[in-house]
Design the sequence.
């Protein structure tokens, strides 16, 4: 494995285990078995290293989203959305310790914001992708014509995101699957044809 | 103003301006015009200080929630929910730099979790309060009998929470009011009698 990859792996572990606030480039370099000088040859600052971790090491909703899009027009829409919502709760729960950590450091937040802006990427892309899926189902008549795909996507993914946040902070029953099903059932009369 | 209050104010400012990762008790003590030793007489650790900031200085949804509950059975339910959702987006946006920062430090997260558990409090209380409001409207026949107040509350507040998160990270149109109205319109056929 090349040095850059080793540094990224070590940084990801340190950010998860120690937190964004406590992980230092010194420790990351040590864990990657390289010098701090070499680390800074690959990443110009701690912020740029973190940015690379966010862009290259953090699991995203793309896989669950691809599964969803592969099922346009197929099977039960309610079941497809429930499976997607459950995957979203789990992924957001996994990602939040890192994503939340960005807020601990305004400089890191600035770097991330500039990076998302320059590449047209960002966490909101998941909501746009879900809205595209709902629009495709709407064209097939499986989503109600009166439904607003953007608002429906924001409601469903937003609830999954906040649930994941709560799971880190308070003791909740271990029923994310029922939670996901309840969300989709609640939305269904306004969404599903 | 007594020392404890001065320290809490200085810590809140430092956490907002420098971020949870960069704010130090040394700087906080200096800004509060006291010694670090005195700071530690009031708060046994940096984590306990941050915990007190979260519990005593962070605006919560209680006010918007109280307005909502004062309007049970009154006016347009759709308008009442839209005003609440807009207030939630704004409050969550204001609070996220601090709330997100907790995730940068696993020790701080542990302290917060224990503190929420011992007092039965936490950010999920806002969703429970919204669900109580919807249940009260359901008893008056203004919310559909088939609607699930818990799921509806999770959908609406979750979307507001995630929107606030996105607003910190990516450039979005300045239309949180339309966003809030669209959420409620989307939910309405499944929620409002």
Sequence:
């Amino acid at each position: 494995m090349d040095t850059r990859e080793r540094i990224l792996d070590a940084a990801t572990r340190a950010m998860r285990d120690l937190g964004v606030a406590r992980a230092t480039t010194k420790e990351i370099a040590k864990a990657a078995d390289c010098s701090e000088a070499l680390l800074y040859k690959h990443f110009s600052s701690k912020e740029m290293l973190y940015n690379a971790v966010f862009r290259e090491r953090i699991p995203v909703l793309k896989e669950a989203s691809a599964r969803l899009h592969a099922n346009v027009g197929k099977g039960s829409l309610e079941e497809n959305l429930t499976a997607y919502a459950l995957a979203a709760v789990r992924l957001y729960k996994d990602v939040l310790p890192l994503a939340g950590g960005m807020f601990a450091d305004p400089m890191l937040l600035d770097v991330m914001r500039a990076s998302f802006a320059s590449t047209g990427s960002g966490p909101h892309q998941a909501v746009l992708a879900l809205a595209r899926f709902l629009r495709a189902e709407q064209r097939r008549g499986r989503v109600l014509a009166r439904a607003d795909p953007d608002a429906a996507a924001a409601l469903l993914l937003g609830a999954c995101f906040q649930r994941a946040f709560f799971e880190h902070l308070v003791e909740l029953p271990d029923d994310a699957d029922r939670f996901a099903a309840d969300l989709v059932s609640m939305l269904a009369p306004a969404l599903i044809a």
